[in-house]
Automatic annotation (TrEMBL):
Lineage: superkingdom: Archaea
GO MF terms, alphabetically ordered: iron-sulfur cluster binding; metal ion binding
Keywords: Electron transport, Iron, Iron-sulfur, Metal-binding, Transport
Protein name listed in UniProt: Ferredoxin
Coiled coil: none
Keyword Transcription regulation among record annotations: no
Pfam families (alphabetical): Fer4_15 (PF13459)
InterPro entries cross-referenced by the UniProt entry: Fe-S_cluster_ET
Gene source species: Halorubrum ezzemoulense DSM 17463
Amino acid sequence: MYVEFDRDTCVGMYQCVAEWDAFEKDLNDGKADLAGSTEEDEDLFVVEVPDGEELDAKFAARSCPVDAIEVYDDDGEQVV
């Protein structure tokens, strides 16, 4: 399972930070950061979800008010 985070879409509500420790507040930019992620495209960050953190990643995606976070299963199908 992996997460795609569109940082450009992020509006800095930080609800994802409360749901999953992989997200951190960047108060300088007013947006969240996805720790350990790789920038796949401009402002599009991707990270593998560690075992046992799948539910937290899904909650983070569901809590985002602007849908900047998407979760995909190992087959590349979007689950959130």
